[in-house]
TrEMBL record:
PANTHER family reported for this sequence: HTH-TYPE TRANSCRIPTIONAL ACTIVATOR TTDR-RELATED, HTH-TYPE TRANSCRIPTIONAL REGULATOR
Top-level lineage group: Bacteria
Lineage per the UniProt record: Bacteria, Pseudomonadati, Pseudomonadota, Alphaproteobacteria, Hyphomicrobiales
GO function terms (MF aspect): DNA-binding transcription factor activity; sequence-specific DNA binding
Keyword Transmembrane helix listed: no
GO biological process, one term: DNA-templated transcription
Keywords of the record: DNA-binding, Transcription, Transcription regulation
Family matches, as Pfam families: HTH_1, LysR_substrate
InterPro entries hit by this protein: LysR-type_TF_proteobact-type, LysR_HTH_N, LysR_subst-bd, WH-like_DNA-bd_sf, WH_DNA-bd_sf
Protein name: LysR family transcriptional regulator
Length: 295
């Protein structure tokens, strides 16, 4: 019996809850994955998985075995990476997911610099504003700009990201410039619809916290769309500062409500929990922390 392949197949099935999905990520047929686990169960003399037509879940023995198998595979991977590190040349495929706007504006130039440092790495970058499952999609690192929900995944904070309330001069000339968050309720608002706070805006100032429920005219899950609508005088937007930087400098947008700030959000690197990070993932995350300026 190929014990190592059986362990890898078993761990992947438990992580994904599916023989078919495990086979897809391991590039094996469903029957091959099933045989690996059957061999493992026969060798151990215990049932490791409860199987249905739709999913697989670990038995009590299977869960305990999974936790030890995960540790063993992490140790083996660390040993492999130690040898690779001694050769100082990380190799292989690094799969990265990032938000669309951040990926095109900030990550692209940084990624080119990272590639120059490690030319033997293959990097597959997937840009999307949808929240993907890193384990399900086989991703090494997922970058998110968010207020993070609790998760079994590990998250490392890369840098803080300020937000700015802004609008075009023409819009403000036509509708007035709000001096207090309460005045936003009579304005056309352009809002990002996938925050933990829902569509509500929280702005804090000298007189405390204010929650604004936008009477929005545009709600989108991509902030570039909101920025472009604001530039074309469609309303007031709450945007990540890096996204509106050029428009604020050029005068296409004006920052308003200077005494009130939205809570800081942050860029996080998210990865599955293992005892040891692979060298390529650790190098990439360390590079991002150094490049974007927050340890």
């Amino acid at each position: 019996m190929d014990k190592l392949s059986s362990l890898k197949a078993f761990v992947k099935v438990v992580e994904l809850g599916s023989f078919s999905e495990a086979g897809r990520q391991l590039r094996l047929s469903r029957s091959a994955v099933s045989k690996y686990i059957a061999d493992l169960e026969n060798d151990l003399g215990v049932q490791l998985l409860n199987r249905t037509t739709r999913q697989a879940s670990p038995t009590e023995n299977g869960q305990a075995y999974f936790e030890r198998a995960l540790s063993i595979l992490a140790d083996l991977d660390a040993a492999d990476q130690m040898v690779a590190h001694q050769q100082s040349t990380p190799r292989g495929l690094l799969r990265v997911n990032a938000p669309m706007s951040f990926g095109t504006i900030k990550l692209g130039p940084a990624l080119a610099d990272f590639m120059a440092l490690y030319p033997e790495l293959q990097i597959q970058l997937v840009l999307t504003d949808e929240h993907v499952d890193p384990v399900q999609e086989g991703l090494d690192v997922t970058l998110r700009i968010a207020e993070l929900e609790s998760s079994s995944l590990i998250a490392r904070r890369i840098m803080p990201i300020a937000r700015v309330v802004c609008a075009s001069s023409d819009y403000l000339a036509a509708h007035g410039t709000p001096k207090h968050p309460s005045e936003l309720r009579r304005h056309k608002l352009l809002t990002y619809g996938f925050l933990l706070t829902g569509n509500q805006w929280k702005l804090s100032g000298p007189d405390g916290d204010h929650w604004v429920q936008p009477d929005w005219t545009l709600c989108a899950n991509n902030a570039e769309v909101l920025r472009d609508a604001a530039v074309k005088h469609r309303g007031v937007a709450l945007l990540p500062a890096f996204l509106a930087e050029q428009q604020l400098k050029s005068g296409a947008l004006r920052s308003i409500l200077p005494d009130y700030k939205a809570p800081m959000i942050a860029l996080y690197a998210i990865y599955p929990p293992t005892r040891h990070l692979t060298m390529k993932v650790r190098l990439f995350i360390d590079f991002l922390v150094e490049h974007f300026g927050e340890a």
